[in-house]
Amino acid sequence: MPDKRDGFDRMADVPVDPDIDLHVPDQRAELARTHGGVLAAIALGGALGSLGRYGLTEAIPVSPGGFPAGTFLVNVIGCLLIGVLMVLITEVYRPHPLVRPFLGVGVLGGFTTFSAYADEVRGLLRPEWTATGLAYLAGTVLAALAATWSGQAVTRLATRRTRTARPA
């Protein structure tokens, strides 16, 4: 019989938190107490972000073989906002510990949809729609990276005075 420490089974033995033994009921409860707020913030943010994504993608319909503009916009806007958010919470403000999980992981993670992007690319890679599929494939990645960089750059420029006045 193979050793459980070989291959991928090894990860099953790694605890979530090295200070918590998940086999001890009291310690499992500690994990729920210390991480429950983060999980709730992510869940609430994800629900709100997903509703925003749904509304935007429904407002911009796409025909079969057409460029999925709704999903493209959602992902580019989400990447722009994550660039803004990360500068604000790491360089400008010292936010509450739940701000990043709520806004970054939750709202923007629920708003952006790279799984739908991948599925739409797959659907467009048919002989009659290949050009659209390849344009969407490359265009989304390039636009998302440019949006993230732009969000960071513009936010840093806009908050230059605040960041220089902030104590280290």
Give an overview in words.
- This protein is mainly alpha-helical.
- It has one domain.
- The protein contains six helices and no strands.
- It has helices spanning about 25-60, 70-90, 100-110, 115-125, 130-160, 160-165.
- The protein is flat.
- It starts with about 25 loop residues before the first helix and ends with a helix.
- Mean pLDDT is about 85; it is low at about 1-15.
Secondary-structure map:
Blueprint: H1 25-59, H2 69-92, H3 99-111, H4 114-124, H5 130-158, H6 160-165
Helix pairs in contact: 1-2, 1-3, 2-3, 2-5, 4-5
List keywords for this structure.
6 helices, disordered N terminus, mainly alpha, flat, 168 residues, 0% strand
In short:
By secondary structure, the protein is mainly α. The chain is built from six helices and no strands.
Q: Which stretches are poorly predicted, pLDDT < 50 over at least 5 residues?
A: 1-16
Q: What is the approximate shape?
A: flat
Mean residue pLDDT:
86
Return the domain count: 1
Question: Gap between N and C termini, in Å?
Answer: 55 Å
User: What's the helix count?
Assistant: 6
How many β-strands, per DSSP? Answer: 0
* Helical content band: over 70%
Query: H/E order of the elements?
Result: HHHHHH
β-strand amount: under 5%
Q: Could you say which structural class the secondary elements and strand pairing correspond to?
A: mainly alpha
